[in-house]
Amino acid sequence: MVKVPVSDKEGSSVMENGGYSDYQLVRHFRSVLEEVTKGDRGNYDELVGYLHPKKNLNPDEVAILVTTLRALSGAVCCIDPNHHESLLFAVSRMSLWNYGTEVMDALLELIISLAASNGKYIDWCLEMLVKHFVPPFYLIDSLNNENGIDRKNKVLSRVHAALKEIADLVPLAPLRLCPIVVQNMPNVFSKEREIVIYFENMFKLEGGAIGEIVGATILPALVDRLLELDVEIGWDGILQEDSRGIFDMELEDIIKLADEDDNCHNMPQSELLNRKNLQGNQVVEKLDSLIVLALLHLESCQSSGRLTEVFDVLLPSFQKTVLNAYKSKFTQFVMFYACALDPEGCGVKFAMVLADMFASDLNPPITRMSAVAYLASYLSRAKFLSAALVTTIIQSLVDLCYAYCKFRDSDLNPRAHQVFYSGCQAIMYIMCFRMKSLMDVPRLKLQLLNMPMEAIWKHKLSPLKVCLPTVVVEFLRQAKAAKLFMASESFVFDDMLESDLSKAFGGMDRLDMFFPFDPCLLKKSESYIRPHFVRWSKVRTTYDEDDDDIGEVSDSGSEVSDDDFVDTNTRDMIDDDLMVTVEDLDFNPDLNKMSITPKNSLKYGRMPARIRPSTSPESL
Amino acid sequence: MEWLKVSKANLTVYIHPSKSNQVSKAVLRELSSLLFTFSEIVGGVVLAYDVNSLDTCAKILPGVHPYLGVKLKANLLLFCPKPNTLLEGKVVKLTQESIHVVVLGFSAAIITEKDIREEFVCKTKKGQEVYASRSNKRHVIKVGTMIRFLVKSFDEEILHICGSLIPDHTGSIYWLDKNLEVVSHADRSEKKKRIEPERIMLEQGAVDGELSNLDIVQKRTNAKRQKHWEES
Predict the structure, then answer these.
(1) Do B98 and A77 touch (CB under 8 A)?
(2) Are residues B103 and B34 in the same domain?
(3) Is residue B62 helix, strand or coil?
(4) Do B95 and B169 have their domain in common?
(5) What are the counts of helices (DSSP H) followed by strands (DSSP E) for chain B?
(6) Closest by Cα among A96, A204, A206 to A154
(7) Which chain B residue shows the shortest CA-CA distance from A23?
(8) Same domain (yes/no): B168, B106
(9) Cβ <8 Å between A77 and B108
(10) How far is the CA of B200 from the CAs of B167, B174, B179, B203, in angstroms?
(11) B149: in domain
(12) What pLDDT is stored for residue A407 in this prediction?
């Protein structure tokens, strides 16, 4: 160690560190740093030498390193980025992951002192801390064992404590931290473990003391990264085939999956096939793990009572990115789960916001169509929403559609009236899932019967001819059984289907076939979603006579219990969820074989029903 | 309080055409982007704004993107610390090498050892480091103390302040005010001495960072007169 001159005054203080007090060392380091500006670099270079990373430090070397770092913390005011570049570089190469707790603490003390000493270093220090979110590549694999987990906890708890301390000393630091965290986020091609541990840190940051400030930036960035992974998986092309009759084919296709593992017992074959296709796909597995992290974070937010705040950040982010992303497949389940955790608050708000987006003329048509597709799928699939809320939303959709067609005398034109048709399809889709449960409640039944639905269906714009035939057929079948259209003497809607038109109103993006909350194909995430999710096989339909005796809905109508969707017949065992999402997903575990180019789906044209992917509404 | 002032500003905010259906919201968003950043135009850090009047006519800029130029008048609350002026802040960390202060809850300031006058020595009391005056035992600076210090420099990008405790009229605000009071009103009763410091602190917090002796005397006289009025 460099020789430290001791004056009489300093000599009287407590002696430590081999005869010198901390204060004397600090004074000495200051003079060493100041000498550099005068051209004397001898002691300085020796000092920098102590900081260069070495493997297998012996106890003496550790002691010297700790002492050097501590003394530097006291001398930070003399560090000048122009003259002491090599010192800063040496410090930046040090990794907390490589040292014991003593060196860790000393290094963090130096970083905190640097951050607070001068505005110039704040970004440098924050970046250095953020770099520690992920261990060096050679340590990543060791995180599975006990030592690895212990080391991870030691490093990360210290890093987050240091960020908190810097935020206390420099209150605006969190604002500078946000872009640094977002910029350092691993990209979609990073290893799963790397991206997962980084996400863990981001969630920890969001749930920590400075979460209130950084959350507004970090959460949308997280959702965007999920979405990037989501679109990386890619829908394989746009279906061009006629969907007529597919609903029936799907029903024929049900088999009992007795030999599958427990989790898959009640899964329709098509879903299982697609899930199997997903296995081995690294992007899918990454996304699955990250979504599970997000769901767990939402749970922790709920238990700490800040779910509403987090949801208020997530919602605009969803509106901006996820909603407009081309057929996002999985990311939206984060919103779904947040709603499930707080049905009265978040759940209702989500539905209302989507309904408002659809209603607002200010939004472009594609956004409105997407919003109503989300709304329809959400209301159909969310087990936790009350029947009263569903009826209210149906009422508002019907009113909007009725007001639209009331003053239009033109004939059907799918492209010109695409928003209208998407609204009509949403109404029918929701009714397919909910009609039975709503009709069982006298008050809601009356409300449904009073809606001017029949006028919409009979209008010259002919929504029944334009909307997706599978949805229309199912809706008409249920409506007939429920005697929804009592006003008409005879049931006049037969033979109104012209399915080709639905492609036209859906546009290139085929929004007519977009049902965002169709069963989630991600294995781990799905287990969280399942308890809150309605499968088509569990839906009681109005024409299903056998179900009438089972689980009568209470007259209150205020809430739809789980029983509304519980079907005790054998369908439990052979869940016939007609996979919508799945139909045109052609997941291929081999990334190289993935294509975003639309495929000519006519190749499926002659496939037997058993292996042929269903067409929409897969969800039915 | 010269480092905190209200400015009336005539501004033109340029709104992107896509926001033309919600101009007032877009204007507020643009103004919000000024918050907590140093603006050379207004010569300080904007802490708050209050739009007084919004021109109903907007000028459309010619060009590829026809931005709307909306004129408005606003009151801006500015934080503009100048070198060699006094600032006040709360001590958040104290070491032998430096005192860390936060001003108005958002701006970080540091006073390094060389900028602390020799009167102060760093001691450890009950496991906590404090700076205590050699000449006045009660003049102590510790974590949580509100101090008055001189601005040496202000980093406009990071809003980081370098401060100094060299001048005699810097240090713990509580002690400085009390000390001034003791010097000028040595004859006051014990009871009044206990009450007055609080009153002075409040007035000083609300009115100005630096109160002269004269100000305090004037205020105390006013308070006394008021009391007489109430009694009579």
Answers:
(1) yes
(2) no
(3) coil
(4) yes
(5) 4, 13
(6) A96
(7) B96
(8) yes
(9) no
(10) 22, 10, 12, 5
(11) yes
(12) 79
Which one of B31, B55, B79 terminates a domain? B79
What is the number of domains present in chain B?
A: 2
pLDDT score, position A247: 40
E runs forming strands in B61-199: 68-79, 86-94, 98-103, 107-112, 120-125, 128-133, 140-141, 146-155, 160-164, 171-172
For residue B158, the chain A residues in CB contact (below 8 A) are: 119-120, 122, 170, 172, 176
Q: Which stretch of A264-268, A389-393, A552-556, B168-172 has the lowest confidence by average pLDDT?
A: A552-556
Residue B126 pLDDT exceeds 90: no
| Interval A2-28: pLDDT, tens | 444 444 334 333 344 455 777 788 888
B51 and B162 within one domain: no
φ and ψ of B106, to 5 deg: -135, -25
Q: What is the pLDDT of residue A18?
A: 52
Burial of B197 (0-12, 13-18, 19+ CB in 10 A): middle
Taking CB atoms and an 8 Å cut-off, how many pairs form between chains A and B?
Answer: 59
In chain A, what are the domain boundaries? 8-204, 231-604
B202 with B142, same domain: the answer is yes
Residues B209 and B125 in one domain: yes
Tokens describing residue A468: 């997706």
Please check whether residue B12 lies inside any domain of the structure: yes
Residue A335's alpha-carbon distances to A216, A314, A513, B136, in angstroms, are 16, 8, 21, 62
Residue with tokens 């010269």: B2
Q: Which residues of chain A lie closer than 8 angstroms to B105, CB-CB?
A: 171
Structural domain boundaries enclosing B75: 4-79
Percent of chain A with pLDDT over 70: 72
Q: Which of B79, B104, B126 is the last residue of a domain?
A: B79
Q: How many angstroms separate the CA atoms of B181 and A382, rounded?
A: 69
Domain membership of residue B137 (yes or no) is yes
More confident residue, A62 or B213: A62
Looking at the fold, whether B24 and B99 belong to one and the same domain comes out as: no
Give Cα separations from A445 to A4, A54, A337, A434, A451 (angstroms). Answer: 90, 77, 29, 11, 10
Ramachandran region, residue A265 (left: φ > 0; alpha: ψ -120 to 50; beta: rest): alpha
Interchain proximity A171–B106, CB inside 8 Å? yes
pLDDT score of A177 more than 60: yes
pLDDT of residue B163: 94
A-chain CB neighbours of B106 within 8 Å are: 171-172
Asked whether the predicted pLDDT for residue B187 surpasses 70, the reply is no
Taking residues A473-490, report their average pLDDT: 75
B90 and B192 co-located in one domain: yes
Identify the CATH number of the domain in which residue B181 sits.
2.40.50.140
Q: Answer whether residue B225 is part of any domain.
A: no
Q: What ranges in A59-100 are assigned the alpha helix state H?
A: 59-74, 85-93
Dihedral sign (CA A333, A448, A559, A388): positive
Q: List pLDDT tens digits, range B79-89.
A: 999 999 999 99
Question: In what helix (H) or strand (E) does residue A365 lie, and over which residues does it extend?
Answer: helix A365-381
Does residue B21 sit at the A interface (CB-CB below 8 Å)? yes
Q: Is the ipTM of this complex over 0.90?
A: no
| pLDDT for position A19 | 59
Q: Is B110 on the interface with A (CB under 8 A)?
A: yes
Contact between A169 and B107 using a beta-carbon 8 Å cutoff: no
From chain B, pick out residues whose CB is under 8 angstroms from the CB of A367. none
Contact B92/A at CB under 8 A: yes
Q: Give contacts of A117 with chain B, Cβ < 8 Å.
A: 98, 110, 112
Nearest-by-CA chain A residue for B158: A119
Residue A360 exposed, middle or buried by CB count within 10 Å (0-12, 13-18, 19+):
exposed
Tell me how crowded residue B2 is: count the other CB atoms within 10 A of its CB.
12
Q: Could you tell me the CATH number of the domain that includes residue B12?
A: 3.30.1490
Q: Which two tokens stand for residue A538?
A: 């569990």
Check CB contact under 8 Å for B98 and A168. Answer: no
